[in-house]
Design goal:
Layout: E1 2-6, H1 8-19, H2 24-29, E2 33-37, H3 45-52, E3 57-61, H4 69-76, E4 86-88, H5 107-117, H6 125-143, H7 160-163, E5 172-173, E6 190-191, H8 201-206, E7 215-220, H9 221-238, E8 242-248, H10 266-275, E9 280-285, E10 302-305, H11 309-317, E11 322-328, H12 332-340, E12 349-353, H13 363-368, E13 373-378, E14 381-386, E15 405-409, E16 412-413, E17 440-447, H14 452-465, E18 469-475, E19 484-492, E20 510-513, H15 516-519, H16 522-525, E21 534-538, H17 546-549, H18 557-565, E22 570-574, H19 576-584, H20 590-600, H21 608-618, H22 622-637, H23 657-671, H24 674-693, H25 699-712, H26 717-725, H27 728-734, E23 737-738, E24 741-746, E25 763-765, H28 769-777, H29 794-815, H30 822-829, H31 839-857, H32 871-876
Parallel strand pairs: 1-2, 1-3, 3-4, 5-6, 5-7, 7-8, 8-11, 9-10, 9-11, 17-20, 20-21, 21-22
Antiparallel strand pairs: 12-15, 13-14, 15-24, 16-23, 17-19, 18-19, 24-25
Helix pairs in contact: 1-5, 3-4, 14-21, 19-20, 19-22, 20-22, 23-24, 23-25, 24-25, 24-29, 25-29, 25-30, 26-28
Length: about 900
Amino acid sequence: LGLIVTGQAARDVFEALAALGLSPQEAGALGLTIYKVAMPWPLEPQGVREFCAGLERVIVIEHKRPLIEAQLKAALYDLPEPRRPVIEGKTDKDGAPLLSDIASLTIPEIANALMHALPAGWDTSRAVAYFDRVGRASEAARTNASPTVRSPHFCSGCPHNSSTVVPEGSRALAGIGCHYMANFMPDRKTDMTSQMGGEGIGWVGQHWATDETHVFVNLGDGTYSHSGSLAIRAAVTSGANMTYKILYNDAVAMTGGQHVESGQTPAMIAQQVEAEGVKTIRIVTEDPTRYAGVKGLPRHVTIHHRDDLEEVQLELRATAGVSVIIYDQMCATEKRRRSKRGMIAPDRVRTIINTEVCEGCGDCSVKSNCLSVEPVETDLGRKRRINQSTCNTDLSCLKGFCPSFVTIKDGEPAWEDQPRQVFDAEGLPLPETPSLAQPWNILFTGVGGTGVTTVAAVLAMAAHVDGNAASSLDMTGLAQKGGPVLSHIRFAREPEMISTGRVPPASADCVIACDLVVAAGGDALNLMDAERTAAYANSDVTPTSEFIRNRSKRFESELLSARVKRQAAAFGAFDAEALAVGYLHEAIYTNMIMAGYAWQMGKVPVSLRGLYRAIRLNGTKVEDNMAAFNIGRIAAAAPERLAAQHDPRGQVEEKTLDALIADRAGRLTAYQNAAYAGRYLETVATIRAAETKAGLGETLTRAVATYAYKLMAYKDEYEVARLYTDGKFAAQLAGQFKGGTLRFWLAAPLIARKDVHGHLEKKRFGAWMMTGFKLLARFKGLRGTKLDLFGYTEERRMERGLRDSYLDNMAKLASQLTEANHALAVEIAKVPDEIRGFGHIKEAAAGKAKVREAELWAGWPMGELPKARTSLIAAAE
């Protein structure tokens, strides 16, 4: 039996033999011989003819499409039949499929082909056991994998969050670059991808045959310099109506942040496209003042703020021929990198969300498309917060229509002057590290852009420091943009013991799950073995991009952990991110903490000296990384030595019903007065009495206690002012920053302008607004009276209607409550859950609630509906 291999397949064959329990010497004794082709095309015929002489059977093993197999058959075609072996590869001798021709071959695929090709006479028990393990792992990956997927997404503060938006009724065409990820976002209406230099050319051919009149075409500045200018030239000659958006972010961000090789400025690009025949050119930027002294711009080019992008796009959509928008904003990751290296001054403005004021409507996530706007669970439900560790100060979240946003200029981190805590690991027991008699396999799972691959490389370097061999292979794809990362690290005594860089299926000895979403995915579960793998997880789950589109999306750490635990021989989980933020003030140290934890558990085959040396060789934040590694060790061996760290994204313990009612009544007293709270208590008591009398538990009472409060404590101007001045916001601010100047972003209803959609526009107010808030909060007694100037607005009338109708309806539900309609009554009581936000956001939410309520009332079984059936319907109308 002869094997002809090339490239990675040459090493994979030895991995497959090891999986079958055969050493190269044992395989040779069975008659197996291997020929490695160095250059697969054109195939040198004389060498393969000599190799095949005397063989009965030859299997060509090559990844993806066949390149050698057909050439080999041609080279051997003229040989006499006794000297011509049977040639197999993608198909066997009978023409049946044998090895995949559309993807990389897995070790089990190669091993299966070898097992059935090798002659009898060898012990197949290890092979049978191996395929049994692989089968179980494959089945677990198929049936146990989490439906939650970590898709790549724009970095926090990425200019593409804003630049790839298109007006209603338009669509865009994609190209090569980070902006391609707009394809993954349903609201971006972006499709079709071309090769570099072919951006928009599909439309050149299509526009003749469709009634669609115009498209936008996204084109990165790096691609423009490479070949994209040729696409624009071709488009101009076609006469098609299209607008190229040249996304100038001053970096080839997808491949590491290199400078664009041509060094073209926006002014130079404008000159070039004008020379190509483009008549209409607009520059859109986050800071138009930067163009005050720019020379060389073509005469007809105009400069616009990025807030005016929609108006600019609408103008160019109606412009015949090819037009160009140059969207000028620095790459967020490159901006962060340059700031850390002292190449540019760091931004002095940070954003904070007043959690008490926030309604959790998600408009800020929609407007910014940013993953640094994260969920935070509170006693009053899910709200929003800004993750200061990942925020790149793009400030587009301020567009969210909500008065909870505050910016602080020149504020210093509150922890900056705190003395550095020393994490002494001297007294911890040293674990027995694994033997390297056989290769040891570790899989890291994490989120792109958070330093996972760096920590994996540090562990591999530690092995080299010890005098052992190690390989590190990172499966990233678009992972540097928040997608899934799987780092495969293989350790051995000698380099030749490591055949392939990837951890084979069912062969992971340790999984370090820095991200549970990735660890609970099929790719990771397929590498685990329930009898072999030890898995250690960071229990904090970083939200995926799905949270931007679904504000109620839950990331249940317990469910994800259970999926991983079912496929592991040993499992441990702790909140490593909370420790990283609490002690080192940066979430990026989570990965090193996890590495320290796994090492202390005896699952990383490197010495402590080697690890410390590797961290120093890396040369970045050495002391912090040493501290992070030691924190992980302490968390594994002596967790009582670490103070409990609060996870702001974690679940809030549910109150008892009595505690819930007392809490909400106290809040309503502060909101208005005791009489107002009494109205709430009366409604809840009525429902509770009816539910108790019918022996139906407390589900309806809990729902009414929750949502009656929600509608009664609507956040008008008086309440927003009170929530800014009752001390909670001051405590929140002091926990993050010291010093600095505050700015408030509000849409005051009596003085705010309206945008083209008729919505109020937010305006910046100075720090003096805190004095205004204190004054305004004192007038809460005017709420609902004739002297309440704010109470005459449509929004306030709607909110009072929602409140009054709901309370009236709950009383009538109580009077008709039965076991048969109890579940439906609970659903009706929960309808206000979706009514969140302020202004037009709340109005739209109330409209959806109206539809939902109508659907529920249609199923009410009690004959004639209560007269208050109109509740939210009438109020919304």
